[in-house]
């Protein structure tokens, strides 16, 4: 599809980066319009016409508008030529959907907001860390990592085996933040599959080219 894809969202966003990783893996060119959802003035009204909940990312492509990250990821894979980012078998496709749901429902809030933001982002902004929030999040983080470790394919190098999928695109930016915290080491150490996965996925060009230059959440 030859029309330019327009991606809306700030580079600091985990979810925007997941979409950018997928675009890089597919080899799709795009134009990115920064939308800072933390701006004191709020998001522009014009953006709310595209994304009524004021979240990021969103996209426009060939007259088609879309928001919600998982939907955007699936669209990118199915609308453009390039390597498939979704498995072909029903079981593997269901496993990918399961991992995406775990990441959205349990991992993001726990690993990024309750641990990374409290331990790293807040002190960088001169704010006080909520140690109680971190302590309360650690059991949930352990559950997330244990679940992903069990679901990760034995043969790797990606979460579903030899094929990089949308699950990797979304997991990578979340783990990039979480693994910056001192709490992560003890939780990841008993998860050798995730350790191997992280080594490989964090070395990919798509991961390195999308490293944000600003704060990340």
Nutshell version of this structure?
The chain is an alpha+beta fold. The protein has 2 domains: 5-79, Glutaredoxin (3-Layer(aba) Sandwich); 90-209, Glutathione S-transferase Yfyf (Class Pi), Chain A, domain 2.
Can you put this structure into words, describing what you see?
By secondary structure, this protein is α+β, with helices and mostly antiparallel strands. The chain has 2 domains: 5-79, Glutaredoxin (3-Layer(aba) Sandwich); 90-209, Up-down Bundle (Glutathione S-transferase Yfyf (Class Pi), Chain A, domain 2), CATH 1.20.1050. Helix content is 55%, strand content 7%. The protein is built from 9 helices and 4 strands, in the order βαβαββααααααα. It has helices at 14-26, 45-50, 69-79, 90-124, 131-151, 166-178, 183-188, 192-201, 205-209, and strands at 5-8, 30-33, 58-61, 64-67. It has a 4-stranded mixed β-sheet with strand order 2-1-3-4, with helices on one face. β3 (58-61) and β4 form a beta hairpin. α4 packs parallel to α6. The longest helix has 35 residues, at 90-124. The protein is globular, with a radius of gyration of 17 Å. The chain starts with a strand and ends in an 8-residue tail after the last helix. The mean pLDDT is 96.
State the CATH architecture of the largest domain. Up-down Bundle
Proportion of β residues? 5-15%
SS summary, helix count = 9
Name the assembly state: single chain
Count of folded domains: 2
Distance between the termini: 31 Å
Q: Count the E strands.
A: 4
Which value, in Å, is the CA radius of gyration? 17 Å
Question: Regions with pLDDT < 50 over 5+ consecutive residues?
Answer: none
